[in-house]
Amino acid sequence: MRKHLLTLNEVTVGYGEQTIIDNLTLTLEKGKSYTLIGHSGCGKTTLLFTLGGLIQPKTGNLNFESESTPSHVATVLQEYGLFPWKTVRENLSLGLIIKYKKLSSEMTDSIAKLAIKLGLDTHLDKYPHQLSGGQKQRVAIGRAWLLSPELLLMDEPFSALDTITREALQNSVIGLSSKQETTWVTVTHNIEEAVFLGREILLMSQTGGAITHRFDNPSFGDLELREKPEFYALCLQIRQAMKEIHLADGGAR
After folding, report:
1. What is the reported pTM?
2. Taking residues 195-213, what's their average pLDDT?
3. Which residues contact 72 (CB under 8 A, 6 or more apart)?
């Protein structure tokens, strides 16, 4: 049985007078991969940033079960967040340098090995403007993963990429998620991506930030999953649930 990593206790989050998440209680398990899906504007990114300590709740609290703190959290955004004047090698190592002040030989080895896994080993001396969108996102994910965070958050990291590049990156994430005891939470608006990347798929309501459904994906980690009947069956189940939520909310948005 997995241990709990963190719990949101009756958390309410909003901007000004507008409440986005209303009295949410949610527990995440250590070392598990979650995907968060829902209609546009339902509060997915707000919840993600709350989990990462980037947004403070108005009421309620977030409790890590161990001695973890927000410094053990890494975030990957759609916009990459790379420094244009630094090489791929320097961008990959930046988080480690900020955290530990300098690189050890072990860290340097880890960067080199990860670059091979991510297909970046021939690009280490290039600058971001010399990379494709997929390569830039590999650097962003690699930089976060090298920190060995207990919680790794990704906000629609592949939405701007073409289908083939997106699926290749999804495969890379699956490979990385099996290498260390990190809890992953990925926000996506794509049902197929949610199923492929999630051991558990969390579906949010259109308003109030409630988690209305939690779908278990026992086939998580299978790189051939996209071609199997159970993949399409789970996608269909989630799609139907999203339609029901949409209709229950009066078909808004």
Report:
1. 0.91
2. 94
3. 64, 149, 150, 151
